[in-house]
Each structure stands twice: as structure tokens, then as C-alpha cells.
Amino acid sequence: MVPRKPDILVGMQGRMSGTHGLGRAFYWPNQAPIFKADLHGLFERGPVDLEIGSGVGWFAVQHSNLFPHHSLICIERSQVRYLKLLRRAKGQAPRALPIRADVHQWVPSNLSSSSIENIYIWYPNPYPRKQRWHRKPIFERLLWILKKGGRLTMATNIEDYAHEACHYFEKVWNLEVLKSEPLPKEQRPRTHFEKKYLERGETCWEITARKP
């Protein structure tokens, strides 16, 4: 049985300031602004990639070395991790753009169709099962902003998650799965979670899919 594609639901919470669509600041109820970013000119400087759940910026530094001509939008919701990400990016990842935000609200309001070359999602929470990334309504928006031929990479330490994601990628989202395999034990960690799992001897899976 082919799983049903999730209903489209792109909601906004809190209040927005600004009227130009880019660089908006989001105000959550009873909180200070959680980010303010200006994207004008970013896409004129070359390819742009998106990282979701950037943590403290380990991957941003690796990405800067591997793809020096790509910009990387780094979205992190936690204030503590975001501040560390900001400091690390400033010194070691000159083309990274750290943003403190919830991806469910920020992406629909700031990124346009076919604007992103690559999307990276690292170790998403596997529970509750019905809220896994490939089942979420926001996933369709992610594919909408991904360019034709663009790639989406996801990593998880849950084998069942990896297999289910592959199934959804192919059967629901019509993506071409290019790779679904365990990471080598000598993998250089891209996040704190990955470092912890590899040091425990756990198997970490990486899935890469291409938008046709």
C-alpha cells in the first residue's frame, strides 16, 4: 500500500514585521524577535544550499571547505546552539548564513520555488512516528524550493527511519534515491549527535535523493 501524501498545511505562528518578504523578523507571542536576516543579494553570488537543524556549526565549516562557491543557509532553533553557530561561522565559514528560526515558519516565507541546490537534514527526531520529516506537510515545501536535479540528504541513527524515508521518497514524493547506506565508522562527524552515535558504535544511515 502506497502511503497517502500529507495534506498541504503551511501555517504561521506569532507576528511578522517587515513587508518585503525577505529578511523578516518573527515575533513569537511574549518573546523577543528570534531572528532577523537579509537575503537580498545572496542568490546572486552563486548556488545556495540549506541546512536544517545546524547545531553549533560543524557542518557549516565542512561545507565551506568542500563547496567554497556555495552559500549555506543554516537554520537552528535553539538560542544556545545558534550563538555558538554564529561565532563558528563568522570565523570559519564565511559563506554561511546562520538564522535562528523554526523552519516550518521561516522557509515558506523566505525561500522561493527552485531556489535551493541542496538540502541537508541531520538526525531528525524519529518520534512521534507520524511526525517524521518525510511525513510532514513542510516536506512538500522543501521539495518546492529545491531545484530540478537538486539533492536532499538526510542522516539518522534509526535503521527503520532510513528505510521508511526511502520508501516515502520514492513512492510518495517521486524522488530518485541515489544512496541509502550506513556511514563508514571513520566518518568525520558533522554534528554533535553524529559524533555521539559513532562513538557509541551505533550505525548511522545516510540517504541521498535527487529531484527529477
* Uncertain ranges: 4-36
Structural class: alpha/beta
Rg for CA atoms: 17 Å
CATH class annotation: Alpha Beta
Biggest β-sheet, characterized?
7 strands, mixed
- Give me the number of helical elements: 6
In total, the number of strands is 10
- Which strands sit side by side, in order, in the main sheet? 6-5-4-7-8-10-9
How would you characterize this protein structure?
The protein has 212 residues and is an alpha/beta fold. It has one domain (45-210): Rossmann fold (3-Layer(aba) Sandwich). The protein contains six helices and ten strands; from the N terminus they run ββββαβαβαβαβαβαβ. It has helices at residues 58-66, 79-92, 103-110, 138-145, 159-171, 192-199; strands at 15-17, 25-27, 33-36, 48-52, 71-76, 96-100, 116-122, 146-156, 176-182, 205-210. Strands 6-5-4-7-8-10-9 form a seven-stranded mixed sheet, with helices on both faces. The two termini are 23 Å apart. Mean pLDDT is 84; it is low at 4-36.
Brief summary of the model shown:
The chain has helices spanning 58-66, 79-92, 103-110, 138-145, 159-171, 192-199, and strands spanning 15-17, 25-27, 33-36, 48-52, 71-76, 96-100, 116-122, 146-156, 176-182, 205-210. The chain has 212 residues and is α/β, with parallel strands linked by helices. The longest helix is centred in the middle third of the chain and has 14 residues, at 79-92.
Write the layout of secondary structure elements.
Elements: E1 15-17, E2 25-27, E3 33-36, E4 48-52, H1 58-66, E5 71-76, H2 79-92, E6 96-100, H3 103-110, E7 116-122, H4 138-145, E8 146-156, H5 159-171, E9 176-182, H6 192-199, E10 205-210
Parallel strand pairs: 4-5, 4-7, 5-6, 7-8
Antiparallel strand pairs: 1-2, 2-3, 8-10, 9-10
